[in-house]
Amino acid sequence: MTPAVLLGAVWSGLVLGLVALSMVALLRVRSLAEAVQRETQDARLAQLAALDSLGGRIEALAARLEDVRAVPHGGNYAPARLGINLSRRSQALRLHRRGESAGQIAAELGIPVQEVKLLLKVHEIVMSTV
């Protein structure tokens, strides 16, 4: 064999090897691209399912909001009391004159502390104007 034929054979072998390597690389890139496409499709399907779920929850919340808006004064509460009667009012003022706190008065009479505080504040205002 002549050196030119040997050189041509080496070059041909090198070119064939590079072509084979390129084919393997292209096949690998194609398989990776398909895997990414599958993962993307799976993620898209998961997002669509999550959006459907959120849409259902939003619709349920909207229905509950409409139900709440339909009830007068925001809820099914017990009817409001008309306030404390005169005997409890006088008892509360008597206890206050004895030096009892609003919390103690409320506990003893069975009425809310805020109601006792309001009664005492109104009483003080009325007494200051007299």
Strand content: under 5%
Topology pattern, helix = H, strand = E: HHHH
Q: Give the total of domains.
A: 2
Count of runs of 4 or more consecutive helical residues? 4
SSE class:
mainly alpha
Gyration radius from CA atoms, angstroms: 43 Å
The total strand number stands at 0
Distance between the termini: 133 Å
Q: State mean pLDDT (0 to 100 scale).
A: 88
* Percent range of helical residues: over 70%
| Poorly predicted residue ranges | none
**Based on CA inertia axes, which overall geometry fits?**
rod-shaped
Largest sheet: none
Explain this structure to me?
This protein is mainly alpha-helical and 130 residues long. The protein folds into two domains: 3-72; 86-129. Helix content is 81%, strand content 0%. The chain has four helices and no strands. The chain has helices at residues 3-70, 86-97, 102-109, 113-129. Helix 2 (86-97) crosses helix 4 and helix 3 packs across helix 4. The model has no long low-confidence stretch (mean pLDDT 88).
